[in-house]
Amino acid sequence: MNKKKITLFYCLHLFIVAQMLQAAATEPVNAPTTISNVTVYRQGAKITTTASATVPQGNSEVLLTNLSQYADANSLQISIEGGATLLSATFQYNYGQKQAEPKQAKILQDSIKLLNEKINDFQTQYNIYSQEKNLLAQNAARLGSQNQQNTVVSVAEISALGDYYRKRMFDIEQNMTEATKQKAKTSEQVSRLQSQLNQLQTPASDKLTGEVLLNIITNASSTLKIKCAYVVTSVSWAPLYDLHYNGPDKPLTLTYKAQIYQNIDLDWNNIRLAVATGNPQQNNSRPIMDVQYVDFYRTYGDYTSGESDDGGVAQKREYNMMSKPIPSIPPPREEAPPPAYTVSTSNNELNAVFDIDLLQTIPSDNKPHIVLLTEYQIKGNFQYHTVPKLDNGAFLLAQITDWGQYNLLPGKSNLFLEETYIGQVDINPSVAADTLLLSLGRDERISVKRLQLNEFTKTKFLGTNRIQTFAYEITLRNNKNASIDLEVLDQIPVSRNADIKVDLDEKSGAEYDEALGKLLWHVALRAGETKRLKLIYTVKYPKDKSVTGL
Question: Is it the case that residue 525 has pLDDT exceeding 50?
Answer without folding.
Answer: yes
